[in-house]
Specification:
By secondary structure, the chain is of the alpha+beta class. Helix content is about 30%, strand content about 35%. The chain has one domain: 3-Layer(aba) Sandwich (Aminopeptidase), CATH 3.40.630. It is built from 4 helices and 8 strands. The protein is globular. The N terminus is likely disordered.
Length: about 170
């Protein structure tokens, strides 16, 4: 079901391979703890109690996992899980698939894992008709999505002072 993808070269000279491993309800606590840690810095920066994954409860993560349209995947390397990605796919050509959220743990960032995970999610669920939201003030995240072919739609909503979510589609 999933392919091994190569990330960036690491110090040893080889490439780090990644794979997406489907999560289930039994993984709710692990995903919740990981996402809380992964989004904590951004939560502290924007103080966003409404939309930040760092402010969500474990029950909300479990409820998402119970949804028939949710596919959570651990992003794994030979070191174990380095992050996760959630895909909402209703298998309806009139409704875009959504990525919400994707995260890489702080110690594993800037190694190409998020890019490879998105490409693999697109491989699994289809390459077209995708949507996601990103904090427009986070230039690195926006650049990643644009590099992968996602385009800003112009739809924006201010969440907090200095924090605006923008919609991207592919």
């Amino acid at each position: 079901m999933f392919r091994l993808l190569r990330g960036k070269k690491h110090k040893g000279g080889g490439f780090t391979e990644i794979k997406l491993k489907r999560a289930d309800l039994a993984d709710a606590e692990t995903i919740w703890k990981m996402q809380t840690e992964a989004f904590l810095e951004m939560y502290r920066k924007y103080r966003d109690d409404k939309t930040s994954p760092a402010a969500e409860s474990e029950d909300k993560t479990a409820a998402r996992l119970k949804s028939p349209y949710t596919y959570y995947y651990f992003i794994e390397t030979d070191e174990g899980a380095v992050g996760a990605i959630r895909v909402v796919d209703e298998n309806d050509p009139n409704k875009p698939k959504r990525i919400s959220p994707i995260f890489i743990m702080p110690q594993h960032r800037n190694k190409g894992f998020a890019q490879k995970a998105i490409l693999e999610a697109e491989n699994i669920h289809g390459a077209s008709n995708w949507e996601l939201e990103a904090i427009l003030q986070e230039a690195g995240s926006c650049a990643l999505y644009e590099k992968l072919g996602y385009r800003r739609t112009g739809e924006e909503r201010q969440i907090a002072e200095g924090m605006t979510l923008g919609t991207f589609r592919k």
